[in-house]
Amino acid sequence: DTLHAAADRLGEEDDVFFSDRFLLARPLLAALLSDEPVVLLIDEIDRADAEFEAFLLEILSDFQASIPELGTIKAKHHPTVVLTSNNTRELSEALKRRCLYLFVDYPTHESELNIVKMRVPEMSDKLANQAVEVVQGLRRLDLKKNPSVSKTI
């Protein structure tokens, strides 16, 4: 009897499998559906594939997402979107046109030394200074990828 009732309920649905009941609200969709303004962080966008970047373009352009079986989902509030990149690949011109760009350089010797001392307080001043000098020296070389502050620590 319960199986028949469930089958009847399924028969009444417009589309059994393509409905918002089966749609997972991952961060992008959750940001669009949020009842309050949100900040959406997309870390290391340069590691995303072209399909994701194309999907993101629609969100950044119109603050909406088109889902073929469900239609268009429009943002209740325009989210503030922050993208980070490590420059592992060039981003599309279309994506770059929709963004404000802020380059965050490596810290100065003094700032990096303070970071090391905060994160590893038991390290001697001499060793901390030497570590920072070595890493900062490596960054001045023509390396494919410079060591980050986390490598200093």
Question: How does this structure look, described?
Answer:
This protein has helices at 2-12, 27-33, 50-62, 93-97, 109-119, 125-139, 149-152, and strands spanning 39-42, 64-67, 71-74, 80-83. The protein is mainly alpha-helical and 153 residues long. It folds into two domains: 25-97, no CATH class; 109-152, no CATH class. A hairpin with a 3-residue loop joins strand 2 (64-67) and strand 3 (71-74). The protein is elongated. The mean pLDDT is 87.
Give a topology summary.
Elements: H1 2-12, H2 27-33, E1 39-42, H3 50-62, E2 64-67, E3 71-74, E4 80-83, H4 93-97, H5 109-119, H6 125-139, H7 149-152
Parallel strand pairs: 1-4
Antiparallel strand pairs: 2-3
Helix pairs in contact: 5-6
Strand content: 5-15%
Question: How big is the Rg?
Answer: 24 Å
Determine the number of helices (DSSP H or I, runs of at least 4 residues).
7
Helical residues, percent: 40-55%
Largest sheet: 2 strands, parallel
Low-confidence stretches: none
Order of helices and strands: HHEHEEEHHHH
Mean pLDDT: 87
End-to-end distance: 65 Å
Q: Which strand order does the major sheet show? A: 1-4
User: How many domains would you count in the coordinates?
Assistant: 2
User: What is the overall silhouette?
Assistant: elongated
Topology, number of strands:
4
Quickly give the structural class.
mainly alpha
